[in-house]
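Reminder to self: tokens first, then the designed residues, so the page reads top to bottom the way the pipeline ran.
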């Protein structure tokens, strides 16, 4: 008899963004003339930058001639891309990361979801609340979370991110082995200073723990004093893995490319307390289960680091940040407290006691604007909504004018 993985029964309904899409589709079916503006899922709307398209085309052209055609590539990614990443994203900022510590993949969602496979079943996991649902759901699927009651899994150590703590979680009160962190944060848009990250790095070193650091939104950081990588913090190489993505940096949500950094001196432990190489383990997993990102896509990603690519991609992000400023100004004018949107594409808005799904429905029904209900990210988000800056300037202006009318 083929039996199911019973842990799937503990998952809450469907994946958050599928739930939202379903509600929006129903609304659109009932209101075919409504011009729905989507500021929900963080999906980019601008075309790929010209330099990126040129890189992509070159890759396709090479695939079109026998002499330059490529079959299977290295699972970890081509050297040209790994070297460009190491030099530009890390070494240029004083972070000691080598090309062979970078594993190119089809995105940060898969990697941040898959990474937990490398760890024992009974480790203690600390997860922020609110949180990007992938970290939690993949551990539910793996059977590490225990039962669900009153909005929480009993086996997880939740780290509340609230207005009172500036949306920066405190160190867990009980010992934990694996810690998920994301800065700039999804969903709150909060950022972390080097000093704040150092507290976590020191904790991990003292407790033989590991940090899974999601830096998918690092390119939105405009405050030069903020770290873009956890490896800008001393000691992080031994205790942190970092996930990155070209999705939000360079508009690759539909093109698919990201990478994971696993430093060679990152320590994990066997049952008898001896050390094992996390780099070797992830390499084994990656080469077994993944066959690499397509050559043209890697050429497109490489072009992000060309002189023209850097300028164009920065301009794109500046445009999204300008949208974020409009959202923030509107919320301030309407008297809603909010965080994020300055070094992040997300604005996390306190609904003043309103339930987040009610707030979502109100904006959809009265303004035809889609946001993300904070409750979908965890119990601490139940009275918040997230608005994303990923849309055109015109749409964001229209959306905010409609939101003003709806909420006045
Ligand atoms: C989000 O809206 O939280 C993200 O777009 C989801 C993702 O990157 O998978």
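Designed residues (408 positions):
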């Amino acid at each position: 008899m083929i039996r199911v993985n019973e842990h799937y029964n503990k998952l809450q309904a469907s994946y958050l963004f599928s739930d939202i899409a379903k509600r929006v589709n129903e609304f659109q079916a009932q209101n075919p003339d409504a011009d729905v503006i989507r500021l929900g899922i963080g999906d980019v709307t601008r075309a790929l930058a010209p330099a990126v398209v040129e890189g992509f085309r070159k890759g396709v052209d090479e695939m079109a001639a026998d002499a330059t055609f490529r079959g299977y590539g290295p699972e970890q990614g081509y050297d040209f891309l790994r070297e460009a990443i190491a030099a530009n994203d890390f070494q240029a900022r004083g972070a000691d990361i080598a090309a062979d510590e970078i594993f190119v993949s089809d995105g940060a969602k898969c990697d941040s979801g898959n990474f937990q496979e490398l760890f024992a079943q009974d480790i203690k996991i600390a997860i922020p609340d609110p949180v990007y649902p992938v970290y939690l759901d993949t551990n539910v699927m793996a059977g590490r979370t225990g039962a669900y009651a009153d909005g929480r899994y009993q086996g997880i150590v939740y780290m509340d991110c609230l207005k009172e703590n500036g949306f920066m979680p405190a160190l867990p009160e009980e010992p934990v082995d694996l810690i998920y962190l994301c800065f700039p944060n999804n969903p709150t848009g909060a950022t972390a200073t080097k000093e704040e990250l150092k507290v976590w790095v020191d904790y991990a070193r003292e407790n033989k723990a590991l940090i899974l650091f999601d830096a998918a939104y690092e390119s939105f950081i405009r405050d030069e004093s903020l770290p873009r990588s956890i490896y800008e913090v001393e000691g992080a190489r031994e205790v942190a893995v970092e996930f990155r993505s070209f999705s939000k940096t360079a508009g690759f949500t539909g093109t698919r490319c990201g990478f994971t950094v696993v430093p060679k001196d990152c320590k994990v432990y066997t049952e008898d307390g001896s050390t094992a190489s996390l780099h070797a383990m992830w390499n084994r997993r990656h080469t077994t289960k993944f066959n690499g990102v397509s050559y043209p896509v890697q050429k497109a990603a490489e072009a992000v680091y060309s002189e023209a690519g850097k300028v164009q991609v920065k301009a794109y992000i500046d445009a999204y940040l300008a949208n974020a400023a409009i959202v923030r100004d509107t919320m301030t004018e309407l008297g809603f407290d909010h965080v994020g949107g300055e070094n992040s594409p997300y604005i996390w808005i306190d609904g003043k006691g309103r339930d987040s799904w009610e707030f979502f429905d109100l904006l959809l029904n009265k303004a035809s604007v889609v946001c993300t209900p904070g409750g979908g990210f965890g119990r601490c988000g139940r009275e918040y909504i997230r608005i994303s800056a990923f849309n055109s300037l015109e749409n964001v202006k229209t959306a905010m004018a409609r939101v003003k009318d709806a909420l006045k």
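The CA atoms of residues 369 and 399 lie 6 Å apart.
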